[in-house]
Amino acid sequence: MLSPLSDPWPRMDADWTYDPLVGRYRRPSGKFMSEKAVIALVDGRIVELGKDLRRFTRMLIDGNITLDQWQGSVREALKGAHIQATVLGHGGRARMGAREYGRIGQRLRAEYRYLQGFAGDVLAGRVSAPMALARIQLYAESVRGSYWEGTTLRQEKQGYSMMRRRLDPQAAHCNDCLRYAGAGLVPIGSLPMPGQRCECRARCRCFVEYKRGAGINVTV
Q1: Rounded to two decimals, what is the model's pTM?
Q2: Candidates 1.10.150, 1.20.120, 1.10.490, 3.30.70; correct CATH number of 12-149?
Q3: Helices 143-157 & 129-141, crossing angle to 10 degrees?
Q4: What is the torsional sign of CA 171, 137, 193, 86?
């Protein structure tokens, strides 16, 4: 198994604590972390993961590792990143249970199926080197979806029943994301998480706001 260039994320609950009363992380100083700061952690992890996955893929292209070695290294890197992102979204390891880890397992099994197909395309010569490097980056970007899944589970436990999709003002958006954002405040589960069922796919930069109270169920 190849080693990643970057060190794995430290445990989120090792230095920071999660306050369930307000649904936010506190820094070691006691100050709250903003949602923007937490998402920046996810984005930073995705950047580092992308570097590792592209390095593994270049080694495969150059003939320095076998396809099996490449696939095993990518799987291991993805597993760690998806677990870390879900834990962060859910409020730390202490709050994780069988349901939450089961959701991670489901997501990883889907990612591994996609990766198996990718490996088949590489073996058959159906993807060029630039295509392979671009495609592997999408696997890194998919980690953002695990963060939002963990966040949604946490918010439901805290009594939040409504969600609203928001657009990142710094990003380009597909028609699907524009439609989801236009749906307004709806019950949790009425809209897909960022990166799901949209043309942006793993590159989706939308985010979610959660609210308590009644709302109108909108079909989108």
Answers
A1: 0.86
A2: 1.20.120
A3: 10
A4: negative
